[in-house]
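hey so i finally got around to running the thing on that chain from the lab meeting. sorry it took forever, my laptop kept dying and i had to restart like 3 times. anyway pasting the input first so we r on the same page abt which one it is
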Amino acid sequence: MENQGSYVALGLKIWKAQIERADKLFVGFSSEDLLREIAPGRNRLLYLWGHLTATHDAMLPLLGLGERLHPEFDVVFISNPDKSDKSQAAIPSREQVRQAWNAINSQLWKGFEKMSWSDWLERHSAVSAEDFAKDASRNRFAILLSRTNHLSYHLGQAVLGLK
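ok and heres what got predicted. didnt touch it at all, straight out
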């Protein structure tokens, strides 16, 4: 158990690299580009960016880093598929998503920097103490890893929007 700090540092390095990759990709799209589907009949790029933003926002309370900044994004980007009546009516603009993305990821990073490696091994807020006692892998670090994979997956989809 001597390498926990190294594992956490590596996980954070990969998270930060993927966030930077997403920043570069999404900010490079025009408002018109963001309305393109990644493939015929599939999600638009703006929806993917908003979905990632809402997912990252949900990490704040999950990791004990504070309240959500934009819970209103859930209706558009989590609870409803792209181009549904509910998501179409309330979809934020490119600038609103960009501002929320930046604020949320900045808040997450500030929280990450304050956490010790042992903080990462504590249970996250969606698991009970009883369940955590049965399975200690349901910890904060597992959330970081799963959300990094989620981000990577959707970045792969977004790259399809370039073609």
